[in-house]
Amino acid sequence: MSNGGMETKDRISALPDEILCHILSFLSTHDSFATSFLSKRWQPLWLFSPILHLNDQTFIRNGRSYSSFFNFAYGTLFKCRMHQPLTVARFNLTPRTCGYGSDFPYPLFKIWVSTVVQRGIQQLVIEIPRALEVPHIIWTCKTLVVLKLYRLSVDVFVKVHLPVLKTLHLDFLFVSKSQYLAEILHGCPVLEDFRAYHIFLDNKLDGVEFPTMPKLVRADLKVDYVFEFPLKVVSNVEYFRFFLKLKKESFPIFKNLLHLELHLGLNIQWHLVIKMLSHCPKLETIMLHMPVEPFSTTSWISPQFVPHCVASQLKRCSIFNYTGRKSELQFTKFILQNSTALQTMTIHKIRPSYSSNHQSKFQMLQELVMCPKNSAKCKLLFK
Predict the structure, then answer these.
(1) Which is the most buried residue in 153, 154, 187, 189, by most CB within 10 A?
(2) What pLDDT score was predicted for residue 18?
């Protein structure tokens, strides 16, 4: 190929197959397929990508029917890739494709999932805006390392055996009985990363034995206000992101917890914050998120004791969406005045309180700066 007498080379096409397949792995499977029309060099490459990403957005943007999406998915899975091993599979379907009637070909979808499981899948992500039953074959996949499920359901008891699963994310999961969720956790003996956002299930925990996950390092919990998730499941974690609910009164000992990101609800109970801190003896970092919306809060009552982590372990404290309410200020002072190891106190996004007698931003800053600190190394930062 020449350009003004100078020959130009297609340097990308000259790269090895392994590198080109790696580049294609960042595209959806449909976009990866489109590269096969570039030249003969590119024509077979998309078939060798170890990643399958079926996303119907491309079809919707082009005004094509959902049946064309299913036809493409069928051809990709059963005509072109039967002998190609897969490591990652993602299914991202929108309401237009799934619908809420009886026309969604769920039996075909189960065949899709069964096919990728049988080909040694290591990472599986399913995002469907409809509470379809999780295909049972997933729960006994011996090769899965990462499993992320969005808006699916577990309606019947299944035996779970996921011997190498390390990451489990469950968002908007509908579970008909608490026992089924316990069974899922029992079947993940080496789980290290667990996320549960809005799990909907009954609140009947009597007789249901939830395990304490021995290998768990990181947990992220935001459950609904009906179901009280048993926190002993995540009591071994080192990193914990938690949305503290109003009625949560009991906490296990988080013996390994180093980093806590705590989100407070619209009805803040400061005694629960202190109580949780008292159950985190090794805590070094706390990130406290105040509500963005107008909120109510109990009056600050000075604790009768200083939690061990506050007194001797805490190094970093960050408060987000700080408004300068009296109770917020008193909590901040409590940390500053009782933490001997504190290195930084960071106040983020200072904004006036929603109350009628709020302080000005300058007054808030001044009062915090003048507060005595128990740690000589502590720096007060505003961001």
Answers:
(1) 154
(2) 79
In total, the chain counts a number of residues equal to 383
As a whole number of angstroms, the distance between CA 64 and CA 70 comes to 11
| Torsion of Cα atoms, 265 then 269 then 271 then 277, to 10° | 10
Both tokens assigned to 370: 């003048």
Contact (CB, 8 A) for 198 and 222: yes
Question: Residue 56: is it exposed, middle or buried by C-beta count within 10 angstroms (0-12/13-18/19+)?
Answer: buried
The closest of 187, 86, 206, 90 to 142, measured between CA atoms, is: 187
SS3 state of residue 310: helix
Most confident of 91-95, 97-101, 341-345: 341-345
CA–chain centroid gap for 383, Å, is 25
What pLDDT is stored for residue 31 in this prediction?
79
Residue 287 token pair: 């990130």
Can you give the pTM of this predicted structure? Answer: 0.85
Please give the Cα distance from 18 to 24 (Å, whole number).
Answer: 10
Amino acid code (one letter) for 54: L
